[in-house]
Structures are given as structure tokens and as C-alpha cells.
Design brief:
alpha/beta, Rossmann fold, Helicase, Ruva Protein, domain 3
Length: 442
């Protein structure tokens, strides 16, 4: 009858209370338990369950059931499973509509979907599909031990609440997936940190914040190949330290590692340093001299401040990267080397290209694999470890007792923006230790 579809004010309040009780629960098992424990408050039933659908394996599985007001829990690690091809749940999946069975002994679709315990024998049931816009999630069972007609009002109530249940299920499943992903990331973090701790060179890079872990994962990708690397980051972030870690922890660790600051020398002197010169090439060239590219043959050359190179030096570097060849200053002889190049800059090279200060073709050659050491302001959680590292380093160097860092000093360090990054922090710690003298606190 039509009036059976309407709820009284008291029934509506109870319906709303039951609905709200499970909508804020994010744990899947707890959410299902909350639903089926409270379902009997709004419909006249003796048992309930939710069967989740596993499309991949073609199964429904049950985590919890409620029978005669008693709660039965089956862990998600060992759920009750049934095929999704048979039974009432299989029919609901196929037809996507609610099934009302007032006497299961007279309905061939019922094949013991949920017989319950020995004391509970299902005689009548309603099975409602649980679906969201993303798809079919499972079915909701409402069960009775006695035969008899479920009312249209009870059917409508269950169909109405099924929408809220389905959305809450979907949210709980998503939360579970995110939780598993977070746990996986945490395990990967611990594995990465253990690898870092086992590498002596890595121990020089202090930090376990997310930005540092991302940088470490990039470093590991290039340890054992000869890929050209561009380290692009702010002054004081430790670009040369990253280059040394790459070299001394990879397949080139037993080969030469040489470094040159390209912004510290005039063009003519830089050319001689990198490519060498022959006797008589210029005033003062009294003998042949190998350049750093030749010295680093088979190993790694680190070119710091590569963005400061003049156009002529950029062109000469491009040739080495393209062909592995160069000519010493004053020589007509071409020499060939096999060198891994790691370049670094604190400039935005893309912007330098736009301004006509840097060759685009050279940029593409050195920017094969980019690593960006994070600025200290983006990894402030690493400041305590960095500060203690520098305190120990300078104290041991000067034969001093290692002082403790006061809470006030640490708070000051945490609040400061550190435009000079780790280098500025290191210098500040050294200055503070010098001022503190023999004091046990700084």
C-alpha cells in the first residue's frame, strides 16, 4: 500500500541516526560492523551481513555477520567466500535489483548464500545491491529465521539506506588503499634509509625528509651507469656533495674524480685547466700539461657553475659531450676520452637560454638526468640532525667537548629561512661553537 512507503517522524530520526553513525567511519571492517549491528533498529530483522564483490576473482566475501543480536566477526584475512555466479547474490549482481524472498525453501535462487551458524537457519531475506557511480560493490543481506512477508516499507528503507552504505564502503575501501600505500612508502623509506646508512659516502648527506628521500631515489638510479647528470639547485644545497656520492658509490668509484668551478677562472685559464696545453702554447707554458678531462678519463668530471661558461667554452664542452674529443690548447692533435660528466649550476638554465646566455644544444646534452637538491627551507625537519652533525664535526676537529644544542637555539634555527641553505647553517654552527668556547650549551 502507498502509505507504507512513508516514515514517521520518529522512524525518520532513527533512520538518520543510523545512517550518520557509519558515515564517519573510515576503517572498512569497523564500518561494515557498524552498519549490520544497527540495521535491526530500522527494519524488523534477526540477522544481517554485507558481501563485498571481488570482480577479479569472481567471488563475494563476508567479513562480519549479525545473528539474533549477536555479533560474529570473520577477519578480512580469512573471509567467508562464495562464487558470484550462483545464489541470490549472483542473481542480484546479474540483474542489479533487489530480491525479496519470503521463504527460501521455495526459491531455487537461494543456495545457502549465508546460512549463518548452526543455531541460525535463514528462512526469509532481502538482498539489496550496493552500487555507486563507479560500479557494483556488493550486496546487503537482511535475514530472518522465520518465514513471512517483508513489507514494501522495509524493502524501501533498505534500498534507501543502501546508497549511503555503498558510498561509505567506497570511501572506506579508498582509505584502506591509501593506508596500504602509505605503509608501503614507509617501508620503502626505511629500506632506502638503511641503504643510505650502509654507504659511507651517503652518510655525509644528512636528512630523511620526503624531499631528501626523493633525491636519494634519483641518485640510486644513476649510480651504475654513465648518464650525464645536471645538478640544478640553489647555492649551499650541497651540489658537489651529491656529485661525489654519485661517483664514489657507483661503478666509477675506483676511477678518477676531478672537479672544477667553471665560474672561478677566466676563459683562457679554464680552457687550459679542462683540456690541457702543450709546451709553448702561451707564455709560461714551459711543458705539456694534461687537462682535467684527460685526467678523469674512465671516471667522472664534475663541472660546477657550468652556467658561468663563456660561449666559446660552452662550444668546446659541447664537442666533448657529443664526440668525446677535444684539443689541448696550442695543439692540432685531437684526443679522445671516455668521461662521465656531472654538471651543476645555481642558475635557471632555461631562463639563461631565453636570455641568450646559454646554448640550447648544450643544455639538452647536459640535462639528460636532472637532480635538484632541495633548499633547506623545504626540509626543515632535517635541521636538528644537520645541526648536531655540524656540532660534532667542528667539536671533534678542534678537540672540544661536544656541547648540547639548547631548545631555544634549536627553535631559532627552525624559524630562520636559511637563504644560504646548508652551507649557511654549517657556517652559523661553527660561529656559535667558536663564540661558546668551552660551554656545554650553545
Amino acid at each position: 500500500m502507498e502509505h507504507e512507503y512513508y516514515l514517521t517522524e520518529q522512524e525518520f530520526a532513527l533512520f538518520s541516526e543510523v545512517t550518520q553513525s557509519f558515515q564517519t567511519i573510515v576503517d572498512l571492517e569497523a564500518m561494515i560492523a557498524s552498519v549490520i549491528m544497527r540495521l535491526s533498529l530500522i527494519v524488523d530483522i534477526e540477522g544481517a551481513s554485507i558481501a563485498l564483490h571481488d570482480q577479479k576473482n569472481g567471488e563475494f566475501y563476508f567479513i562480519h555477520t549479525v545473528e539474533d543480536g549477536g555479533f560474529s566477526s570473520v577477519t578480512s584475512k580469512n573471509p567467508i567466500k562464495i562464487s558470484d555466479q550462483n545464489g541470490v547474490a549472483g542473481w542480484v549482481l546479474k540483474h542489479d535489483e533487489t530480491v525479496v524472498i519470503n521463504d527460501v525453501t521455495r526459491d531455487q535462487r537461494f543456495q545457502g548464500d549465508l546460512q549463518g551458524s548452526r543455531e541460525f537457519t535463514t528462512r526469509s531475506m532481502i538482498c539489496v545491491p550496493l552500487r555507486t557511480r563507479k560500479g557494483f560493490l556488493g550486496v546487503l543481506y537482511a535475514l530472518n529465521k522465520k518465514s513471512g512477508d517483508f513489507t514494501q516499507k522495509e524493502k524501501r528503507i533498505l534500498e534507501t539506506i543502501s546508497g549511503s552504505i555503498a558510498i561509505s564502503l567506497e570511501n572506506a575501501q579508498l582509505y584502506g588503499e591509501l593506508k596500504k600505500h602509505a605503509e608501503l612508502l614507509e617501508r620503502e623509506k626505511e629500506i632506502l634509509l638503511s641503504q643510505i646508512r650502509s654507504d659511507s659516502e651517503f652518510s655525509e648527506i644528512i636528512g630523511s625528509s620526503p624531499p631528501m628521500l626523493r633525491m636519494f631515489s634519483l641518485i640510486y638510479k644513476v649510480l651504475n651507469n654513465s648518464t650525464t647528470v645536471l645538478i640544478q639547485g640553489e647555492t649551499g644545497t650541497g651540489k658537489e656533495l651529491v656529485a661525489r656520492v654519485i661517483h664514489f658509490n657507483g661503478k666509477f668509484k675506483d676511477k678518477p674524480f676531478v672537479a672544477e668551478n667553471c665560474g672561478a677562472l677566466p676563459e683562457s685559464l679554464l680552457e687550459s685547466e679542462l683540456f690541457g696545453h702543450v709546451k709553448g702554447a702561451f707564455t709560461g707554458a714551459v711543458q705539456d700539461k694534461k687537462g682535467l678531462f684527460e685526467v678523469a678519463d674512465g671516471g667522472t668530471i664534475f663541472l660546477d657553475e657550468v652556467g658561468e661558461m663563456t660561449p666559446l667554452m660552452q662550444l668546446k664542452l659541447l664537442r666533448v659531450l657529443q664526440e668525446g674529443q677535444f684539443r689541448p690548447v696550442g695543439s692540432s692533435e685531437t684526443r679522445t676520452v671516455n668521461v662521465r660528466v656531472i654538471a651543476a649550476t645555481n642558475r635557471d638554465l632555461a631562463e639563461e637560454i631565453e636570455n641568450g646566455n646559454f646554448r640550447k644544444d648544450l643544455y639538452y646534452r647536459i640535462n639528460v638526468f636532472q637532480i635538484t637538491p632541495p633548499p633547506l627551507r623545504d626540509r626543515k625537519e632535517d635541521i636538528p640532525d644537520l645541526a648536531h652533525h655540524f656540532i660534532q664535526k667542528f667539536s671533534e676537529r678542534n678537540g672540544l667537548q661536544i656541547p648540547e644544542l639548547s631548545p631555544q637555539a634549536l627553535q631559532t634555527l627552525m624559524l630562520y629561512p636559511w637563504p644560504g641553505n646548508v652551507r649557511e647553517l654549517e657556517n652559523e654552527i661553527e660561529r656559535a661553537l667558536t663564540m661558546a668556547g668551552e660551554h656545554v650549551f650553545i
